[in-house]
């Protein structure tokens, strides 16, 4: 059945036209577009080969499908396609542009499919490289680059280099020379130093003298790629003079290419070339009449100053750098690119010129900070610790502390605050203990905001560094409370990171005379997590112990081993699963307690837990047996055999045979959580329904009482009026009163219906919020279990 139906009312001529359209454009309804099996596997090899040889006679839909999957067809044909492949490729030389593009995209796959197909593929690519359409040329060049990866040794030079040189020498076609330059730049690293110095570099320099400006521009664009391959002597004698000559051109396109690749040439140049030639050239670019060339030159200035030795820096370069915040300079390029480049290279320039220039650079720093641009301020905030190291603690306290206070107290942008917090521990290293202690109050301030959990995560990442740079007294008084608070955070990622850093505080208090008291406090605080009624705090205790058992073995064995193993009897499956994963990782790294019989017994017990088995995707390859005396082994032989008979163990299989064990049944933990969630929702629904019914009854009673009061007042007012109207007027007043009562009744009825809808909406919202909270609890439980 086709997807087009012809109306019987059409004339015969119209029907013939529709039949022709049907043959060309229709496709089967049960055929999926792009599905290989729907149009390939139905054909045997002879039929498939015949179709490929007559691809030009196919309808557009069939031609598109076969062309998109021609590499698959060649694989199916096998040896039969070897002799006919050049004929098949010949058919695409005269096809439309879109079919040629589809065919070229498959050539690298055809090349990989068969060794006999390699030479025909290179030949057809050389044909498409000479095509008149630039898009097809560039696509053929990219496919040739992919094919070059599979060529070995001299094959690259023998097969690809003649094609490229032939295109480079095509004086009649400018696009051929441009594509040849692109191929030279991409393939120069594959050709190697010998072919690059013998052929590629000279061809690039030759095309750099071309009469067409686009060709000369492309030669400059590909020059850095070739320069990275050739030797230093060849670069200094040949390519560097060529680049300097191109910089002197008056053509805007060539000059733009030179300034855009200026920093790449700087990386390959010597100090003499930087100070003698490139400095003068950069100053010339900065005075150029073209606005873009001038702006790019200023954008390169900071990195160029950082690449020169301190004693050889031209003073005019520093002067120009200090002017980058001026209005006439910063507006040369859009989106404040000049200002961002100035801020990005500020620490490198300061490191190069030294502290003596800090007063001048400090004014520039303040000017950049006042721009209130997110990218600029974030870059400066992230580099404050590097600036502080260069200028020293005294100047940093005077000049940088106010900036920090502004960031932490008044900065509305969280990205700027985040950039500063990431390196805050590095910033505090250079200051005295008094200054560090005074600055720690900021930590209490910034970690209070519950919405900014990424900032708390960044602080948690630096707890181990803070444990080493602060004295033991400050650690005990100020940092430990922050650390343990982060271990109870409402975000699982923050809890995980903070818990894994607690081990560092044992190292930070070692040299203190009160180290034993501090150690006792840390251990008691950790055991408080183990005894907590909140399950994720017990998980945090496991995460704390997973690091301490690796670095502080004596403390772990004496104080924490027993509380840790007690969690094997925890009622929450995710806690037991996390304990199992922690013990498994510890035994894999062969910790000092790997032969502890209690630890091994608990690990074997958890390994046989059904809920843990359902959560583990792979069967543990680590087989652990507790080393016990022979008498105990004989005593435990019978119960072990019974346990094995009751719960058969999985057979050990290779990963190649079955890479992953698929769990078909839903884990028990998820079933229990889902049942608890449904029961809780039902209870909440019943409670809410009772409350809503009571409230609606009370409101209806009030409304009815209000109606009766209004009717009585109206009746009294009517009786007090004089009876001067005739019978017609009395009838009219009765009708008016009846209509008013009817309107009041309809209005009250509408209010009642609207109130009922609002109550129903509130009930649905409360049920949705309650369900989302329960779902979030369930997700947190699963994430906490899976992250470890």
UniProtKB/TrEMBL annotation:
<feature type="repeat" description="HEAT">
    <location>
        <begin position="160"/>
        <end position="199"/>
    </location>
</feature>
<feature type="compositionally biased region" description="Polar residues">
    <location>
        <begin position="761"/>
        <end position="774"/>
    </location>
</feature>
<feature type="region of interest" description="Disordered">
    <location>
        <begin position="704"/>
        <end position="788"/>
    </location>
</feature>
<dbReference type="GO" id="GO:0005737">
    <property type="term" value="C:cytoplasm"/>
</dbReference>
<feature type="coiled-coil region">
    <location>
        <begin position="670"/>
        <end position="702"/>
    </location>
</feature>
<dbReference type="InterPro" id="IPR016024">
    <property type="entry name" value="ARM-type_fold"/>
</dbReference>
<dbReference type="InterPro" id="IPR021133">
    <property type="entry name" value="HEAT_type_2"/>
</dbReference>
<dbReference type="InterPro" id="IPR051023">
    <property type="entry name" value="PP2A_Regulatory_Subunit_A"/>
</dbReference>
<feature type="repeat" description="HEAT">
    <location>
        <begin position="200"/>
        <end position="238"/>
    </location>
</feature>
<feature type="compositionally biased region" description="Polar residues">
    <location>
        <begin position="704"/>
        <end position="739"/>
    </location>
</feature>
<dbReference type="GO" id="GO:0019888">
    <property type="term" value="F:protein phosphatase regulator activity"/>
</dbReference>
<protein>
    <recommendedName>
        <fullName>TOG domain-containing protein</fullName>
    </recommendedName>
</protein>
<dbReference type="InterPro" id="IPR011989">
    <property type="entry name" value="ARM-like"/>
</dbReference>
<keyword id="KW-0175">Coiled coil</keyword>
<keyword id="KW-0677">Repeat</keyword>
<feature type="compositionally biased region" description="Low complexity">
    <location>
        <begin position="740"/>
        <end position="754"/>
    </location>
</feature>
């Amino acid at each position: 059945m086709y997807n087009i139906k012809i109306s019987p009312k059409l004339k015969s001529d119209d029907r013939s036209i529709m039949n022709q359209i049907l043959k060309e454009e229709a496709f089967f309804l049960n055929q999926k577009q792009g599905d290989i099996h729907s149009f390939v596997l139905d054909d045997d090899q002879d039929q498939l080969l015949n179709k490929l040889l007559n691809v030009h006679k196919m309808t557009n839909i069939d031609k598109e499908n076969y062309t998109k999957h021609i590499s698959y067809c060649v694989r199916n044909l096998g040896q039969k396609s070897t002799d006919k492949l050049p004929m098949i490729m010949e058919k695409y030389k005269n096809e439309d542009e879109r079919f040629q593009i589809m065919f070229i995209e498959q050539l690298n796959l055809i090349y990989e499919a068969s060794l006999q197909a390699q030479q025909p593929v290179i030949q057809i690519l050389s044909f498409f490289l000479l095509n008149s359409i630039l898009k097809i040329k560039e696509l053929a060049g990219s496919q040739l680059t992919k094919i070059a990866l599979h060529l070995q040794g001299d094959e690259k030079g023998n097969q690809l280099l003649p094609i490229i040189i032939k295109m480079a020498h095509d004086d009649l076609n400018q696009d051929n020379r441009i594509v040849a330059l692109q191929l030279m730049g991409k393939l120069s690293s594959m050709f190697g130093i010998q072919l690059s110095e013998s052929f590629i570099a000279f061809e690039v320099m030759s095309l750099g003298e071309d009469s067409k400006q686009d060709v000369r521009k492309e030669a400059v664009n590909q020059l850095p790629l070739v320069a990275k391959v050739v030797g230093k002597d060849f670069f200094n004698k040949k390519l560097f003079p060529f680049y300097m000559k191109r910089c002197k051109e008056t053509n805007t396109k060539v000059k733009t290419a030179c300034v855009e690749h200026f920093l790449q040439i700087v990386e390959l140049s010597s100090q003499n070339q930087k100070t003698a030639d490139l400095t003068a050239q950069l100053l010339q670019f900065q005075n150029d009449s073209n606005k873009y060339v001038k702006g790019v030159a200023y954008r390169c200035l900071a990195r160029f100053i950082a690449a020169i030795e301190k004693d050889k820096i031209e003073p005019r370069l520093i002067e120009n750098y200090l002017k980058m915040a001026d209005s006439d300079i910063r507006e040369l390029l859009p989106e404040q690119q000049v200002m961002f480049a100035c801020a990005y290279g500020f620490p490198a320039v300061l490191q190069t010129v030294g502290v003596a220039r800090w007063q001048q650079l400090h004014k520039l720093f303040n000017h950049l900070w006042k721009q209130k641009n997110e990218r600029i301020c974030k870059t400066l905030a992230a580099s404050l610790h590097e600036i502080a190291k260069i200028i020293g603690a005294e100047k940093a306290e005077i000049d940088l502390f106010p900036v920090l206070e502004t960031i932490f107290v008044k900065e509305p942008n969280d990205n700027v605050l985040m950039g500063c917090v990431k390196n805050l521990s590095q910033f505090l290293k250079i200051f005295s203990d008094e200054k560090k202690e005074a600055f720690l109050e900021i930590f209490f301030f910034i970690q209070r905001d519950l919405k900014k959990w990424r900032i708390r995560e960044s602080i948690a990442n630096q707890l181990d560094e803070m444990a080493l740079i602060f004295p033991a007294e400050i650690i005990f008084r100020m940092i430990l409370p922050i650390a343990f608070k982060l271990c109870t955070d409402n975000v699982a990622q923050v809890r995980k990171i903070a818990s894994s850093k607690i081990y560092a505080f044992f190292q930070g208090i070692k040299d203190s005379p009160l180290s034993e008291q501090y150690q006792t406090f840390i251990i008691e605080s950790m055991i408080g997590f183990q005894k907590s009624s909140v399950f994720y705090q017990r998980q945090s205790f496991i995460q704390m112990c997973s690091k301490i058992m690796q670095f502080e073995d004596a403390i772990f064995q004496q104080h924490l081993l027993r509380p840790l193993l007690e969690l094997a009897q925890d009622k929450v499956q995710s806690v037991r699963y996390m304990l199992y994963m922690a013990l498994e990782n510890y035994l894999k790294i062969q910790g000092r307690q790997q032969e502890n019989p209690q630890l091994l017994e608990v690990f074997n017990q958890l390994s046989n837990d059904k809920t843990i088995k359902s959560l583990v995707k792979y069967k543990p390859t680590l087989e652990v047996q507790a080393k016990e005396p022979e008498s105990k082994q004989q005593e435990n032989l019978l119960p072990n055999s019974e346990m094995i008979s009751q719960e058969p163990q999985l057979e050990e299989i290779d990963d190649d045979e079955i890479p992953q064990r698929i769990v078909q049944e839903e884990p028990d933990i998820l079933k229990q959580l889902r049942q608890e969630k449904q029961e809780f929702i039902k209870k909440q629904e019943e409670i809410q329904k009772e409350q809503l019914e009571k409230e609606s009854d009370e409101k209806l009673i009030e409304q009815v009482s209000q109606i009766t009061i209004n009717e009585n007042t109206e009746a009294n007012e009517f009786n007090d009026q004089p009876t001067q109207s005739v019978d017609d007027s009395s009838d009219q007043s009765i009708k008016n009163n009846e209509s008013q009562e009817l309107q009041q009744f309809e209005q009250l009825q509408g209010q009642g219906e609207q109130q009922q809808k609002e109550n129903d909406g509130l009930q649905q919202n409360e049920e949705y919020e309650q369900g989302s909270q329960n779902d979030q609890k369930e997700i947190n439980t699963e994430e906490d279990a899976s992250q470890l």
